[in-house]
Amino acid sequence: QRKGTKTSEVPEDYTAQEENVKLQNELPSGCTRRRLWRILSFTIGGTVALCIGLLTSVYLATLHENDLWFSNIKEVEREISFRTECGLYYSYYKQMLQAPTLIQGFHGLIYDNKTESMKTINLLQRMNIYQEVFLSILYRILPIQKYLEPVYFYIYTLFGLQAIYVTALYITSWLLSGTWLSGLLAAFWYVTNRTDTTRVEFTIPLRENWALPFFAIQIAAITYFLRPKLQPLSERLTLLAIFISTFLFSLTWQFNQFMMLMQALVLFTLDSLDMLPAATWLYGIQITGLLLVCILQFFNSMILGSLLISFNFSVLIARKLQKNLKTGSFFNRLGKLLLHLFVVLCFTLFLNNIVKKILNLKSDEHIFKFLKAKFGFGATRDFDANLYLCEEAFGLLPLNTFERLSDTLLFYAYVFVLSITVVAALAVAFHNLSDSTSNQHPMGPVGTCAIGLKPETAYNLIHTILFGVLALSTMRMKYLWTSHMCVFASFGLCSPEIWELLLKLFHLYNPKWISVMRYSVPILILLYLCYKFWPGMMDELSELREFYDPDTEILAPGLIQTLKSSSSNTPRKAVFAGSMQLLAGVKLCTGRTLTNHPHYEDNSLRERTKAVYQIYAKRSPEDVHALLRSFGADYVILEDSICYERRHRRGCRLRDLLDVANGHMMDGPGENDPDLKLAGHPRFCEEIKRNLPPYTAYFTRVFQNKTFHVYKLSRNK
Predict the structure, then answer these.
(1) Residue 121 has what DSSP assignment?
(2) pTM of structure
């Protein structure tokens, strides 16, 4: 028997050796084919990414040109097309270009006395306008002045950033799914859902249009960083990319700290559930990037007092205090997690309150008042909070948004992928909390769990959930969610892991079926999108419109052009009062001094704006004149569209907000709070037009059309 066993083993060993020799001979050719296929796929995918990004940029730029006939309208009309705060930001680009030297241009921004009358403010500290400074420097030093007007250099830069934005979304989806087909689908969805994914073509200088491309790059870099088994060099380069994109995102948008706070909550959630490798580097990069921006913004107190810095420091401190957080049974670990959450929350509030008291910081209190009122923690008569609450952009996301997203199949695909990944995430989280040995192998549970979820997938899942909640509660923030929705939905449809989970659920698992589903479904959706939306997109590109704003155009040539003239009787240092939105245009078109402006992140400016807006309240001409003169105003511009506003419902019209804040009863049929009283004076903006002696003693009309009325203030006390 022993001899038989030996003789039977010899042929097996010999056969195994023969097979190994054959495999060794075949491996080089097999590896070479796979390597060549990867190179070919990367080349094609990269080329498609660049092309789709450039095409999206050209598409949006063409829509902007066709909508306004931008190349054919006058310069003043181009400037008027930059509405509200967009015009304010562009004015600083224009100011830097008109400065005799760069040094004088910088000096004018650091010691500015035209944006807020009777005050000298540092614009580089107050506002995020380094991008305008950088572009103005580039335009001055590059030999392009003969070929490209300043305004085109500015808008082409923004549309160029859109190419980077779409490319970053494409790459993120590609990294998650493993196929560039996913990135192509994400880009197609971004374009076909343009109404809900971007508004760059009609709000070009808006801060978010500068910032979101860098935010998308940061998300792509974090997605790559969270992949396991990165080479040390790749890891360092990825961390550098995360830092640079985080820094640029923070530098270009004043709301950066709130967006990155959401991101920090994503990291905190996943780190607590043991679904990420150590996130210390990412917390540190956020803090470092924000502090560097703080230095560049001359130690802006709003950054130092941000919740993000307090939260990140609190997380790092709490982790040092609770080293054995990831040990014990399920209920033991759950209790530790709740305690950890409580410690982090307490530390965050404590640090933030200490910093704000030391700095006497009130710049962002209007945001917290707004949030408090929005989520039902008591009604408020605060003018600033109600100003936000009554704006549609800060209301709940309208339901028709989901109808539009469903037309492109995006919403259906998103819900499908989200449902599967949420189930997988809950299973992995439960497994991690139940495994008492996970502290020894932090990423072990993710790999050994029956379902499994990659760290980069888990990150993007919680990211899309938190930003989805933000978008549902505040419509203006939907652009952060809908663009990532395109990424997440396309990734899921092209992901072998998602299809594997689904097919196993229905007992249909087969590797061939996975390949069929992950490629056929996206291709069918791409064909559907081309069939349904391509004709409409071609019609959009062929439809020519023209800029049309007759009242403002009349105001511009009639008043603004007069003010720009050096021979005008109006003093060059005349100060203008009016609505924030209109004054931004006055600043851009005339360069004249303003009493207030739309950049609302300053407590003294908010108080000043409320005082100036008494021109639409029920106040006496003496009171209004005294208030306006206290800010040095020489002229006031009244708008019928505000005085007789019908766009908002009763209680949300600007005049109603002022009446309630002043303790006066609102106009029109409807209920009033019992403690509100009848005003002792008629509404100023209505009564001044009657030219009665009490008003003409203080105000002289110098210009009017059917929308605007401009009055000169007397200097008599």
Answers:
(1) B
(2) 0.90
Secondary structure (3-state) at 704: strand
Cα 620 to the center of its chain, rounded Å: 42
Q: What is the DSSP string of 551-564?
A: HHHHHIIIIIHHHH
Beta bridge partners of 637: 710
Structure tokens at 315: 């997380």
**Angstrom distance (rounded) from CA 186 to CA 167:** 10
Least Cα distance to 274 among 423, 443, 426 occurs for 443
Residue with tokens 């105000």: 699
Q: Dig out the tokens for 312 from the structure.
A: 């990140």
Ramachandran sector of residue 378 (left: φ over 0; alpha: ψ -120 to 50; beta: rest): left
The C-alpha angle with vertex 335 and arms to 331 and 340, in degrees rounded to 5, equals 145
CB atoms within 10 A of CB 284: 14
Query: How is 390-419 classified by DSSP, letter by letter?
Result: TSGGGSPPPTHHHHHHHHTTHHHHHHHHHH
End-to-end CA distance of the chain: 123
Which among 419, 410, 406 is positioned nearest to 461, based on CA atoms?
419
The predicted pLDDT at position 554 comes to 55
The least confident of 327-341, 344-358, 558-572, 582-596 is 558-572
| Residue 19, SS3 per DSSP | helix
Residue listed under structure tokens 């930001």 = 89
- Angstrom distance (rounded) from CA 528 to CA 405: 14
More confident residue, 262 or 444: 262
Element (H, E) at 151: helix 150-177
- Answer yes or no: are the C-beta atoms of 526 and 493 closer than 8 Å: no
Q: Determine the Cα–Cα distance for residues 604 and 489; give it in Å rounded to an integer.
A: 44
* Tokens 């990291």 belong to residue: 267
Is 624:595 a contact under the CB 8 Å cutoff? no
228 has pLDDT over 90: no
- Please say whether the beta carbons of 71 and 65 come within 8 A: yes
Encode pLDDT of 649-662 as tens digits: 888 999 999 999 99
- For residue range 35-82, list pLDDT tens digits in order: 888 899 899 999 999 999 999 999 999 999 998 888 888 888 888 889
The answer to whether the CB of 24 falls within 8 A of the CB of 16 is no
Q: At what angle do helices 232-252 and 207-225 cross, to 10 degrees?
A: 160
d(CA 440, CA 80): 62
